[in-house]
Amino acid sequence: NRAGLIPMLTERFAIIQSKVMPRWSDDERENAYRAAAAVAGTEAVVRLWAERGFRETVEELVQLHRFALGD
Question: What values do phi and psi take at 21, rounded to 5?
Fold first, then answer.
């Protein structure tokens, strides 16, 4: 976080998102907006995790993020 690398994570995730994220809808516009929100949310979650000193395990982080996404 202090090194300013979280935006790089966001950039890389945006590149691979089509391979790792489900299609939620047949409407490409809906998929594009939801994917953009998920990428931005992932950056925010990782940033918060870093700010909190990485107290949660990766597994806990995944579960918390899934909860936040409504899964």
Answer: -105, 140
CA distance 38 to 44: 10
N-to-C CA span, the chain: 27
d(CA 24, CA 5): 29
- Helix then strand then coil, in percent of the chain rounded to 5, is 70, 0, 30
**pLDDT tens track for 6-48:** 777 777 777 776 666 666 678 888 878 887 787 788 888 888 8
Q: How far from 48 is each of 17, 31, 55, 67, 68, CA to CA, in Å?
A: 21, 25, 10, 15, 13
Each residue of 50-62: pLDDT tens digit? 889 999 999 998 8
